[in-house]
# Entry
Amino acid sequence: MSADSVPGVFLSPAALLEHWQGHRRLTRRVIEAFPEDKLTSFSVGGMRPFGVMAVELLRMAVPTVKGVLTGDWSESVSPEARPKPETLRLWDESTKDLNALWRQIPAARFQETVKAFGQYEGRACDLVMYVIDNEIHHRGQGYVYLRSLGITPPPFWERQ
Amino acid sequence: MSADSVPGVFLSPAALLEHWQGHRRLTRRVIEAFPEDKLTSFSVGGMRPFGVMAVELLRMAVPTVKGVLTGDWSESVSPEARPKPETLRLWDESTKDLNALWRQIPAARFQETVKAFGQYEGRACDLVMYVIDNEIHHRGQGYVYLRSLGITPPPFWERQ
# Structure
């Protein structure tokens, strides 16, 4: 029997939440690093401004976790970009909501197959990973925007 | 007792490897999408060309997994960018090496504290996550480079 057929833990639900909130603290700093007007207007290569991407991240995080917990896949945040203070306020609200919702999800739920937003079928753990990966992906793009604006982005390794 | 104090599995070691190799298939397609000369020369905002970032990813992936397994943290790939065919060849070699090494790591090892490359101390699972996060981060930057070159990047959600 090979080691990978032995069940085991790579990450527990609690460790994953801690990891995710570390990423979210970094993403918050990237939002903060943008000059107010550039957050919703500046982009490179015809892509979306970072303020629009940030709202996409808000529209995925809590709704996905709420969906995994309750089966209710409704979204509450509209897709348009917000001024920076409003984006940061929504971000902080999501931080609290994620902590509160996550703790209610039984570990076994993450291995179950769910249909997210009526269309994306997969294991709940994979759906959550997709949301985090999408955040890292777009935040990396935000780093290029900041560098193009002559702004040094926050250090990638700093998650506190 | 709250749900997050109950031990449980979010991702098993086998699920994490599958997730990572999915990301690595996508990153390979991003390397392939660059015109040969642009891979090692083009960048935005004074950042490194994607070919240099790709070699950084190679220098982190197998060496980290080998280090977690054996305690040997030596690196075997030098940091300079390679021509595209050579980069892809090294990528494919890493894919096989990762699969072979990962299967030998006992699950409990991922919860142990290790010192990576003589300097980065942390739980082995967190070190591995950092390597994957760094890949997603830089690949997102590669997407901006491709868009700036007028090239449509491979779809983010396609991991097969």
Summary: Strands of chain B lie at 113-116, 120-123. Chain B touches chain A through 53 residues (CB under 8 Å).
